[in-house]
Amino acid sequence: MTILLSTLNARYTHASLGLRYLLANLGELQAETSILEFVIGAKTADLVERILARKPRIVGFGVYIWNVEETAKLVAMLKRVAPEVTVVLGGPEVSHETAEQQIVKEADYVVTGWGDKTFPKLCAQILNGPQPLMKIHAGEQPPMEQIRLPYDLYSADDIAHRTIYVEASRGCPFKCEFCLSSLDKTAWPFPLDAFLEQMESLYQRGARLFKFVDRTFNLNVKTSQRILQFFLEKLQANPHDPVYAHFELVPDHLPDALKDSIAQFPAGALQFEIGIQSFNPEVQALVSRRQNNEKAADNIRWLHQHSHAHLHIDLIAGLPGEDVDSFARGFDHLVSLGPHEIQFGILKRLRGTPIIRHTGPYKMAYDPNPPYTILATDRIDFPTMQRLVRFARYWDLVANSGRFGNTVKRLLGDQPFANFMAFSDWMYTKTDATHRIALDRLATLVRQWLEERGMPASEAAELLASDYAGRIDSHAATPKQKAAAPERQVRHLAA
Ligand code: SF4
């Protein structure tokens, strides 16, 4: 095998779309190229052994925020054992600030940005000469119709067992400074007919779980409607073998035509991930996020009341200008709109993002190690940030898990943020942990907390039992929906 394309996915179920794009666009080199995917957490030496067993001349690695540390070790070991193998890096984590990265020093070449055309050209040069002089190659962005779509490269096994990632467009026209997509000039759509043909082929091959990675699915309403129509027809033709689709929406843009399409979907067929990030207008202005808060709230309310879509809304703590009180107000407002899940994320400083301009003025201290999480700002000190991190973790375990649907409503009461923060602080004193808490123990702790807050023991037990008995309200995600949920903040911000 001449070329091996590899990456470390966060989970086995995440099939790499990036590697499949590279393979699809390799032209005559495609026949001598294969993909070898790993999952983070494996032993580096084992990975090196498996790579070398394929006898590659070139190995291309996809490098992301979730795998950069392990990939750096892998590249270093690979180059020690087999220095004759040429290592080419690509992906968002090595597309910016390349000079200071150890992994870049260890590698032979780096392709920054889009690799669809530049990676094949670089490989041809490495194989046939003359050898490329430069280490860093800026990815060329071709017209979208020149990029070969990769969907026939999903294997039968991928379709049966993994999430199928697809994209109808790349890029984003918005400029939120914490997000890598803010560096894009606009959004570029793929030719829609060709894209839908590929979706049809995936569907005919058995794909039923489609995750769109488009940054803003609802930018062009006509395109969004055609894509929704595609899925609606599948659902109507085959209601007993339903298809499920996940999209990212901008919250303040939901024209009636789109609402009409969304309202036709039955339960369990649609999931929307909606970024709010902050409801604080001053914070929004600081990070250049244009958002009409009133419209966004109206649209979330409408989706909650008039559609069956599962709503997953993102908030980010630790943005410049945000203190705990203003974050708490945004959180409470969001809870009142009734989303099914709130992703409580902690800000990460992604390489290349313009948010770095606030580091000095707002005393933003970030962890120097991936995923570069914010540790403190001028408004939130380190101990308080730690409390917010624990809040996020317990929120996932108790609220987002859907296991305590009835109980959570009582636990939150009329001051959701303050009440859950008190619960979170108490949980930490009781467990000294935020991981590896068995479900039974978690339920016992939740019950104890309710009792400490004055709920009669019998009522608390009954409330917990109502969740345990499976009578969780309709907001709880189905197992299929859970399977579709990626590490959203990181994917959303990094991909
Ligand atoms: S956060 Fe969302 S809307 Fe803002 S730039 Fe990134 S992808 Fe675009």
TrEMBL record:
It holds the Pfam family DUF4080. Residues 158-392 form the Radical SAM core domain. The keyword Magnesium does not apply. Residues 476-495 are annotated as: Disordered. It comes from the Bacteria. Signal peptide: none annotated. This is DUF4080 domain-containing protein. Keywords: Iron, Iron-sulfur, Metal-binding, S-adenosyl-L-methionine. Its cofactor is [4Fe-4S] cluster. Residues 1-133 form the B12-binding domain.
